[in-house]
Write a structure and sequence with these properties.
By secondary structure, the chain is of the alpha+beta class. The protein folds into 2 domains: 2-52 and 272-405, no CATH class; 84-261, no CATH class. Helices cover 57% and strands 17% of the residues. The strands form 2 sheets. Strands 2-3-10-5-7-6 form a 6-stranded mixed β-barrel. The chain is elongated and about 105 Å long. It starts with a helix and ends with a helix. The mean pLDDT is 81.
């Protein structure tokens, strides 16, 4: 242990004594590890933000039936673009045939102008919802109340507004029971949703919710609906999707070999597609890291060969005094690994700094993972061990008499 500590101290003294040479030697490792830390931190932050946004939008166990599902190529898009609209009749069909579904909400949305007195917001998301919308956790009322099923069925001109909409229109004033204009039509505010925050720089709090019938009066009834379906239990989500699919196929008269003329979107499928996209970034990262580590390892090997050459007499003297080959190899390998790991530590610090800067200057979130830090240290230690083997073996094979003769 004392010998190991001595070798590490010797390596650190050598790095400090030759700062520029050490920096150039470790450049490959620094680039590789900083790339790992930065990309992993950004991907982790983005994955968490996307996951939260999808769950917030769709719900953890709910799924959505839409006119067009998720399309991954042009052929799928061309096939689905002629799908019939999703209507209230589809809601009745799913309710009639599905035993594992507890609630179905029909929803339509667009963007329009919303105003209160002299305050005006140009493009606010307007959501028209059916009477079972309160069954879904994506809707809530922090102040006031939710729109009642009776108000929805009677197409009352009432609205539940987002926290951001209330803040921008009313400031510190109480928005409850005030009349705001949605597309020029007055709606009474009955509730304000709690603050949801933002995702990728886009506010999730600037919206208004109104009864679906009122929405269709304002924007027309020919728009295709989206049906949000909630299973009785999270464990029945897959079964509920199958039931909903069968119900719609029967209701639309599709034959066994005909494809679905509707789409079913669940949070897990959306996340799966996103993770496929990020997998490509991970592959690119592997290429960058591999090339950087190869270059860094070769440079470390050359530097250690030079160090062995410079310290030939010292190595010869140690062997003459009784040091064994494994002692010499251990010393050189320890110095090589220490040199490489120092580069890894610098790379970790720079990677954390870069990810923090990117996160602060852009809407892309970041989160440095402990496993990526451990991976960076481990990889650089392996590189130092692998590329330090040849210089260590050459040092161990030196003949002490010839080494002592070396000037």
């Amino acid at each position: 242990m004392a010998q190991l500590f001595e070798s590490v101290v010797l390596a650190l003294q050598s790095i400090w004594a030759n700062k520029l040479r050490s920096l150039l030697t470790l450049l490959g490792n620094i680039v590789a590890v900083s790339s790992i830390i930065t990309v992993v931190a950004l991907l982790t932050g983005v994955n968490a933000a996307v996951s939260d946004a999808i769950v917030s939008d769709l719900g953890a166990d709910a799924f959505t039936i839409e006119r067009m599902g998720i399309t991954q190529n042009e052929d799928e898009f061309e096939r689905m673009r002629n799908n019939p609209r999703v209507t209230i009749d589809d809601v009745a069909a799913v309710k009639r045939f599905s035993t594992s579904v507890v609630a179905i909400m029909a929803q339509a949305q667009t963007r329009t102008r919303v105003a209160y007195r002299d305050e005006e917001l140009e493009t606010v998301q307007v959501q028209g919802v059916s009477d079972q919308y309160f069954e879904f956790s994506t809707f809530d009322a922090e102040r006031g109340r939710m729109i009642t099923p009776t108000e929805i069925k009677r197409k009352r001109l009432v609205t539940l507004i987002g926290w951001g909409t209330a803040d921008r229109l009313f400031g510190g004033a109480d928005p409850l029971d005030k009349a705001i204009r949605i597309a020029g039509v007055p709606f009474t505010v009955v509730g304000v949703s709690k603050k949801k925050g933002s995702a990728f720089g886009q506010s999730m709090d600037e919206f208004v919710v109104i009864p679906l019938g009122s929405y269709q009066r304002l924007f027309g009834a020919r728009q295709s609906l989206a049906l949000m379906v909630k299973p009785r239990d999270a464990t029945l989500a897959s079964y509920a999707k199958d039931e909903a699919r069968v119900a719609l196929r029967v209701e639309r008269g599709l034959k066994a070999k005909e494809p679905d003329n509707f789409g079913i979107v669940a949070s897990d499928s959306v996340l799966g597609i996103f993770q496929q996209a990020t997998a490509g970034i991970a592959v690119l990262l592997v290429g960058i890291v591999g090339l950087s580590l190869l270059v860094g390892g070769i440079v470390i090997m050359n530097i250690m060969l030079m160090v062995v050459s410079e310290r030939t007499r010292e190595i010869g003297l140690r062997k003459a005094l009784g040091a064994k080959r494994r002692d010499i190899m251990s010393q050189v390998l320890t110095e090589s690994v220490t040199l490489s790991v120092v580069g890894g530590i610098v790379g970790i610090a720079l990677g954390a700094l870069f990810s923090t800067i990117i996160s602060s200057l852009t809407p892309v979130p970041s989160a440095v993972e402990a496993w990526s830090v451990a991976l960076g240290v481990f990889i650089t230690a392996v590189v130092g061990l692998f590329f330090g083997w040849m210089p260590a073996r050459r040092a161990a094979m030196l003949d002490p008499i010839e080494a002592l003769r070396r000037e």
